[in-house]
Amino acid sequence: MRRERRMKGEGSARSGGGCPRPAGVSSRTSRWPGVGVVALTLITVGCTGGESGSASSSSDRAASTEALPAHAPDRFGFGRDASPARIAEWDIDVRPDGTGLPAGRGSVAEGELVYARYCAACHGPTGTEGPEDRLVDSEQWDLHPTSRTVGNYWPYATTLYSYIRKAMPQTTPGVLTNDEVYAVVAWILHRNEIIPEDAVLDAQTLPAVQMPARDRFVVDDRTGGPGPVR
Amino acid sequence: MSRDDGFTLSRRSWITTASGVIAAGLVRTRSDAIRLDAQEAAPPDPTKVPGRFVSPVGSRAPGERPRRLLLGERLSSSSRTPLADFMGTITPSDLHFERHHAGVPAIRREDHELLVHGMVERPMVFRIADLLRYPRVSRIHFLECSGNGRGAYDPERMPTEITVQALDGLLSTSEWTGVPVSTILREVGVRPGARWVLAEGSDSAVMARSIPLDKMMDDALLAFGQNGEMIRPEQGYPLRLFLPGFEGNTSVKWLRRIEVTDQPTHTREETSKYTDPLGDGTVRQFSLTMDAKSVITFPSYPDLLPEKGWWEIRGLAWSGRGRITGVEVSTDGGRSWTPAQLQGPILPKATVRFRHLFEWKGRDTLLLSRAIDETGYVQPTVQELWRARGRHTSYHQNQQRAWKIARTGEVTFGLGELV
Predict the structure, then answer these.
(1) Cut 0.90: pTM above it
(2) Which of B221, B272, B385 to mutate to test binding with chain A, by most A CBs within 10 Å of its CB?
(3) Residue among A144, A147, A159, A145 at smallest CA distance from A189
(4) A-proximal residues of B, 76-105, CB under 8 Å
């Protein structure tokens, strides 16, 4: 029934087979072709498969009056351009390929001191005692995790750098230097038997670290619908 | 469960110390106990005493004291909404559940800015005043933490004395007002090849999540309004991302940065947390959509049905994949099911109030509910989830809930009867 309504109300050869356009993806698609492609791909899936939750909400949006009116300008001009300095100041996350890692370096030995000073009070002297999250357990698991530590659950070493740099220590986040973060990451990875005792981490070596749990992660396959529960 | 204050404490004292009052016949139900309390401050005859004057801000009646349930006062913590105390579907803003990873930051509206950058034509900074000027939308949606319902999954440790609030109180519903993210992405111009964004908050954990770009283009909001007023600090003042139907953690609060990318960033909150070991050696990642779920809020623990006869079963149902199309109720432990009445309007990705009138015969009775959404998905049994995911997942535990009414009228959580 929903599909029929969609076909009736939104039939438009230009937007691709009678599917609704998400608001913002309109005749201006050519201005940012990347998004147009993504959006049209999504819509196609929603129309043919009929199982996409996103597609159904596109239908709901089209039925409402949420889309920008036809006379809306391409740009409103509210807000201001972001300077490269401003972006650099806030863009401190790190991706698995190492994008975002700063200059600097840190060794396991240096990390032991950083850990003792800033981390041990909450995570325990060896990273196993708590009271906060257990960090160290190199024992791997078969069917389900017996602990969820850096050593047996975290899929990317870069996540550790990004998280510690942003959020740790919890009561004084941001106090660690870039070198200190590299060092404490090195110590934690070493305690989990992932890198050797003489390892030094920097923007080149950290993304190259292979985490034991990396290949366990699979993308969500739930789609709703009456089929078997996933 | 840790202790809480206020209203729930009075519930608890009603169960224990107030048993003497019950025996004396003064109090038969929880609401009687509250009314008794309220009367202490009220004159015997309000028609003989002038009332109080108008006031700039209203407050609840003195005897009505719904409270969030706190699970430890720490930086990374949560508080739960008193679902059993509510009517309809909207959660009063001051009782909306909380889940913070580093406390609630104090932010002034005029200081806050949103940076949008990455794979865009024009990296831009928006003040709240800028965002308030854009065309707006308002929508009613639920928000649910994907850790909601944890605590009734392990067959070895199935609780009986657990409230709806403690089990499922990481759920709230509000009318959210904001600017569609698609409008802002149009303003900055998304470059070809973009597939994801990173959304980041300005709490002291600088909490961040990767979100598929198609979700951001579909129905995501930059929300600054909650139930008609500026969003509350606990819900992200002055700006939060709101992703209808997605797990609560992705609706990043105190939003300060959106970076458009071609791949997910794999933050801590989408790798070591908010992922689902499936019992076969793999771990499900980016399980973002909240599947359909329902919960009976009355009768529930620690209610007491003082007599047999006609009672109305009441509850909430919701789905992150669209509209609820039906809720079925069983009063015989799942052997037979009857459609419940749904209170319209039924909105997509919003809670729906359901009701079912039944005659309690005074016997041991096991109540269940199951929600069905517009995709045809039926809220599963716990056994179905075990078969699909094993018994060691921590999130998305949307299995059917059960409440047992004992012959005495005492209501307890009843899923243990079925496992």
Answers:
(1) no
(2) B272
(3) A159
(4) 76, 101-102
